[in-house]
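[#protein-structures] MJ: dropping MFS transporter here for a structure pass
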Amino acid sequence: MTFTDTPQAAQPVAGDRRRWFALAIVMTAAFMDLVDVTIVNIAIPSIQRNEGATFSQIQWITAGYALAFAAGLVTGGRLGDIHGRKRIFLVGIGGFTLASALCGFAVNPEMLVASRILQGAMAALMVPQVLSIVHATFPPHERGKVFGLFGAIVGLGAVSGPLLGALLTEGNLFGLEWRPIFLINLPVGIAGLVLGARFITESKAPRALKLDLVGAALVTVGLLMLLYPLTRGRELGWPVWGYVSMAGSLLVFAALVAYERGKGARDGSPLIELSLFRVKSFAAGIAVQTVFGVGLGIFFLVWTLYMQVGLGWSELRAGLTGVPFSVAVSAAAGMSVQLLVPRYGRKVLQAGALLMGAGVLLYMWEAERYGLGITSWQMALPLVVMGAGMGLIVAPLTDAVLSEVPREHAGSASGLINTVQQMGNALGLGLVSVVFFGVIDEPLAAAEVGPAFAEGFRHALGWVAAVLGVIFLLMFALPRRPAQHVEGTGDAPTAVEKERELVS
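AK: finished. structure tokens for MFS transporter:
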């Protein structure tokens, strides 16, 4: 989708007050998705205790959502362009609400995993429509303010998710234990569905587009063949079929590339625009986003298990411990875009990778020094350093990756960036069985759990530090400074414009 895709009849009208109700509705849906990603991590130990979930099931509670979300993002955006963004948004928020209810009333871990996968698939329908609806609803002179609000919502979701999850889980409302983290979505989702049907204006792409269902299926099958053996392999004794499946996933991805090349030549509507990879900075940026997603997927799950299972902390204490990290991310992100990147270019991103790596190493040292007696205050310094480094990376990275992409492909490229980061996150969650659980001998006596999880945490942090080193090196292929113009395409879209063109 590009800005010229909005039909003239659907151009936003500045005097229509309904647009602010529409904004509140779609922003609430975006916030609900952001919180749902972070809120679950805090509740995972409670789910394991109360439902008897295995370690591989715990991984799939998070990885299943990320996988379904990643596989459906681009297709979800295309469905909105074809059938109407309002219509697909309502389907997405309705399905997300239903899936949340199924998660909250799950009778066993298997049902919870299946419901989380459904929830991720529905989020893939809902989330891509948010920015598209905002673009179709607000005139150009109001969009800067609106997307500033969107950035604030993103920051608020990162900070409030763990705290809300801690309060709901530890509060044990009505004796439901962890279930309210999902059930809280029901009144919000129902309100969004009813009000969205009334206040959101419908919009579509003016030209006919086609779905690439085969491409989406190949992506999903390839990832499942790679991730399923990773998450189940350790507890099954690493059977031969697992290695065969992981090797076969490479063949599926090769078939995906061949199919996408042919589809692009046939009808110009592939799931993945392969010509983008001829742009050096974009190819490097995709690699950075993927590897960065792997590192984040490993860290956040392992960190939660370390604090709540290894150290025996409550959900509330673990949630409060993460506040300095979230605040540092938000503060550094604001400074990087407004002050640092215009002056220093890609050096800011590389400094972020080094700073985040230094925070990881400091965390490793503190975890070794203080052992099981480590406190939240002692964790604050490495978390602030890590958060500041992450903030320097996440805010300007998309702009750096897209700066040399031709304008006509900006929307497709933005959607692909978001997709590969989610895929990287799912891969990182799958790797937890290797880098964390792989160094923990089972079964463990009660007295052995703490030391074993602390050792597994330090081992996983070593992997995260190595990932950040790879990211630092990959960043040398990014442009020194974001380009102001792209030859043959007119002015390059601004960072805000690129964010609006999130889904093609």
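MJ: nice. The first helix runs from residue 18 to 51.
AK: one more thing. The chain has three domains: 15-203, 213-270, 275-481.
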